[in-house]
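[step 3/7] fold_predict: job queued, chain A
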Amino acid sequence: MSELEKLAERLGRLLLERGEWLAAAESCTGGWLAQSVTAIAGSSAWFDRGFVTYSNAAKVDMLGIAENTLERHGAVSEAVARAMAQGALAHSRADWSVAITGIAGPSGGSPEKPVGTVCFAWAWTDGGCEAQTCHFGGDRSAVREQSVRHALSGLLERLGSATCLA
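[step 4/7] structure written:
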């Protein structure tokens, strides 16, 4: 079992214990997080759906992101990651969502947003939403894999914190 699948398995156990559901909104990872989650037998009991919204049009159409948010901040931004996570919740039956949007390379970067810049957001149904930007090294595949690992780890951290608060 891969490291990503081990993280997904831990996540699934936590969600099952809580009777809660997950949705994912992915751009630069192209469904890799959803693939890691659905590699776990029984994940249909806690993974509702994944949105692969690679284009800006898909982000608008599938997640309901306002076009002016994309225009003002750019697709690779914490504002768009938050909107993606909130859109995934709004368009699913999930209690938790995660969003990933970034520049995996090898091209597409800029001085302000170099290759390896990835924005994440985690949202939950009580209205909470947290975003974070990371900078990963390596080639396209390495950036994407690190992004999935970070997104799953972030979910585990937030679920663990929510368990402690309950």
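[step 5/7] annotate
The chain has a mean pLDDT of 96.
Strands lie at 22-26, 47-52, 96-102, 117-124, 129-135.
exit 0
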